[in-house]
């Protein structure tokens, strides 16, 4: 899971930087995916050390949960509006979906680790 965490982090950082550039480099809020990607990257790198893996991955899951809740709570109303699909809504939706998938993978990994006794 540390490698998956690092890949998700890099994806979010790229999404944030890409949306910031697309938004004309005027809105710092376009970088929000990168702001969630950075702590995920740190957690992923820390999780490469077996001694830190359990805590780092739980921290990564917590960051991902906050990011998914925040981004989807903004994206869903934007999707429901009658107006055109905005860049911000699209980025929020992508971020939310990526993070929900990551959370599911984390939970599956935690369950497998518990069953194998790796967390004892």
Number of strands: 0
Query: What proportion strand?
Result: under 5%
Characterize the overall form: elongated
- Spell the H/E element sequence: HHHH
Mean pLDDT: 90
List the helices and strands and how they pair.
Blueprint: H1 2-22, H2 32-47, H3 53-80, H4 87-116
Helix pairs in contact: 1-2, 1-4, 2-3, 3-4
What does this structure look like?
By secondary structure, this protein is mainly alpha-helical. The chain has one domain (2-116). 79% of the residues lie in helices and 0% in strands. It is built from four helices and no strands. Helix 1 (2-22) runs antiparallel to helix 4 and helix 2 packs antiparallel against helix 3 (53-80). The longest helix is centred in the last third of the chain and has 30 residues, at 87-116. It is elongated and about 50 Å long. The mean pLDDT is 90.
Structure keywords:
79% helix; mainly alpha; 120 residues
What's the gist of this structure?
The chain is mainly alpha-helical and 120 residues long. It is built from four helices and no strands.
């Amino acid at each position: 899971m540390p490698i998956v965490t690092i890949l998700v982090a890099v994806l979010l950082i790229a999404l944030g930087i890409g949306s910031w550039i697309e938004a004309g480099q005027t809105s710092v809020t376009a970088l929000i995916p990168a702001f969630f990607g950075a702590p995920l990257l740190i957690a992923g790198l820390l999780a490469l050390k077996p001694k830190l893996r359990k805590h780092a991955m739980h921290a990564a899951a917590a960051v991902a949960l906050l990011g998914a809740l925040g981004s989807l709570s903004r994206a869903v109303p934007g999707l429901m509006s009658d107006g055109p699909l905005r860049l911000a809504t699209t980025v929020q939706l992508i971020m939310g979906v990526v993070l929900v998938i990551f959370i599911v993978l984390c939970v599956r990994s935690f369950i497998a680790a518990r069953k194998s006794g790796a967390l004892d």
